[in-house]
Hints:
By secondary structure, chain A is of the alpha+beta class. Chain A contains 4 helices and 6 strands; from the N terminus they run βαββαβαββα.
Amino acid sequence: MQEEYIIKQISVFSENKPGRLAAIAEALQKSNVNIFAFSIAEASSFGVVRALVDNPGTARSVLENLGFAVQFTDVIAVRMKDEPGGLHEVARILGDAGINIEYAYAYSGRDAAVLILRVSQAGEAISKIQAAGGSLLRESDLG
Amino acid sequence: MHCWDPRIETMQKDDLERLQYRLLKTLVYRLYSFSDFYHRRMKEAGVHPDDIRTLSDIRLLPFMYKHDLRDNYPDRLFCAPHDELVRYHVSSGTTGKPTVVGYTRRDLDLWTTSLARALTSCGLGRGDVIQVSYGYGLFTGGLGLHYGAERIGAAVLPTSVGNTERQIELMQDLKATAIACTPSYLIHIGEAAERMGISIKNDTDLRSAIIGAEPWSESMRTRIYETMGVRAYNIYGTSEISGPMFSECTAQQGIHIWGDIAYPEIIDPVTGEVLEPGESGELVMTVLQKEALPMIRYRIGDITRIDDETCACGRTHPRIQRITGRVDDMLIIRGINVFPSAVEHALLGIPELAGHFIIEVDRKGSLDDMIVRVEVAPEAFSDRINDLINIKKKVEHTLKSALNVAVVVELAEPGSLPRFEGKAKRVIDRRVI
């Protein structure tokens, strides 16, 4: 039952120079792909653009046609209480279970704050969060 | 072993040297008598044709340089009567004023003979369809290969360069078994075919490639074989000596220089001293039988070494090894000699990269700053920044140990670096000194 909470994030390799994000965003707009959440991780001359979108398959093929290197990455999306301590609660559950957060970014969802996480053991993270009374989003819950 | 001319190609070394000596002696006498240029040069160097008593006395003769051709533009060095000339080729002039090379009928015949031997040594002959994707026209590659391929009885598909999708269609439709082009154009064809949904390996009859006119490496050979199922053979020449003339054989252990056609020497590029077989230096070529534009000790400027042992294929003529750089392309980075081909060689051993690269050189303050931009192979892309940084560090480390100089590496998006249909231009040197 945990698989339903694993979400396909799209990751794009991009050079760190003016216009690259615009090119990615334009391609998604033209193919009518909606971006729910996204982040950029940057190194010296390049970066990785990560996004949750409503149609990952289309996003991937448009970007690949433009020559971008694209990957799907499994992430999980956790509902946080939108109040002080919300992030602490989620982070503590994973920390106590010995699960490392490789990266995370947050966005404000329709009915709650949402934390997107890439973790070392996604399945275990899902069960620990559920056991602690936390709730996760399915791909269909995004938006 | 199948030879075009077994009598010449496998002749005993002593006999070959006697033949070379005779040809050299005749050439020197002829030029001393009939060429103002060589007469003056020999006088200045204090050498008379009578001083040439053995083959190794060739080192008494003065060098000839590319600027000699430029200074005597267009045809003041020609030795044949005007009405004996049957063709001209002209260099691109990318590194200065163009140079003009003229040919008599016999010059064309020797050029074609040289390539007939070369193509035969690569296992080609009657029944082969050879797609000639070198440029036709003033550049020597297209027409040179064209006549060589016709001479051995192969069918020629004279596609020249460009219009790549059409080239791939024709390659399929007319069942080309071999292609002659630059290594970068071969890679470009492979990539274009892939985009068209065509596998060169599975959907075409292409099995051999005669590639040259720019440096390439052993790892590129492996990659071409693995991805395209094509055995690549290195071909060598330069317009001044006629055009492409010499190639590897199926043993792929160096380029056979037909000793009755040319006499190669390796010299120290700084002192001009002749080096021993096996030692690496600048290639100097004497074309022993040229009529229109004779070449004695022409400094080609390519860096290589000579292997004088009989080849595994049984041919006795000397072989030159892969060109490792050019005397004039050599970059000096913080006092260290860096050849772009050494960069390419190092990069091609790294599976995470797609093979394309650009070297950018700047001067920051008083220090040279060399950046190598490389394309990440799409399959090597990772969502983790650290994995990418590790690729960058691995490339930097590999280049540092190959070149002995610290290099900054920048990862570029797949497909983002320039592709070349002719000679690749991989160095952007912005230093103002």
